[in-house]
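Continuing from the previous page of notes. For each protein in this section, the sequence appears first, followed by its structure tokens. Read the first protein now.
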Amino acid sequence: NISGALCISQAWPGMARTIYNDPKRFLETYLTPYPGFFFTGDGAYRTMKGYYQLTGRLDDIINISGHRLGTAEVEDVVNHHVAVAESAVIGYPHEIKGEGKMLDFLPLKHLSWGYGTAETLAAELQELISKKIAKYAAPDYVQVTH
């Protein structure tokens, strides 16, 4: 059981070869961080049995009141809740904090649809994030979709 950057050792046809008008950025972003490998920009979790789970973008950062927070970090905590199938955290302009965050696209697992109200689930997720990461990491808004 290990987490880290998802990298690919061999290229395939049709894979990106450059960034339009910025080949240096392509090299710095995808080939330089892990020499000999193509860095996808995503994080991954590998189980002891060899299964992989993508945990989200490693370069997607939200700055909340001076705290830099990876969206994948919050999504990972939320996805461990029994009722949540998957999640996405997005930033938005906030006049006091600089950026706020909203936990959005939160479909529930089919068997969990009867799991309390959306407000109850939102409160539980905010508390879970506060405990596992920090109070400032709890989202301002939670959008539950069925």
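Done with the first. The second protein uses the same format. Note its length before scrolling.
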Amino acid sequence: MATVGPSTASTQPALPSGPAVFITIPYAFILPEILCGTWVWILVAATSVSLPLLQGWVMYVSLTSCLISLVLLLSYLLGFHRNSENWKVLDSLYHGATAILYLSAAVLQANATIQSEDGPHTPLYYQLNSAASFFAFLTAFLYILHAFSIYYQ
């Protein structure tokens, strides 16, 4: 008789659910993504938003990404994935697309920061825009890291 090798389902790592989400890479990046993205949204909202076309996109990307990531985190915590392989694909596609969108938002926020140097409330708005740029690039990096970590898992 031929020996049957291990099935492919047993060699695939299980998707975390419950508190294990916070200690399993790359899923542990979701909470920092949400927190840094929230800081981007708060810091941009604290300025006068003198460049609505640029900073409107930053606000849209940060708020939408924050909400979708929060729903994704809750679905992992509650175990909605039922260890389906499709969730890895969904997670990877979402984080990859969001990384690209966040990188574009970070560049636009950096441009808004440069343009805010000569504004009426120069020191305060420049500092808020600088902090928003920093957190936007940090959040983009976290999304990139998450997307590649899933891909190479």
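What the second structure shows: The mean pLDDT is 81. The longest helix spans residues 85-115. We return to this in next week's lecture.
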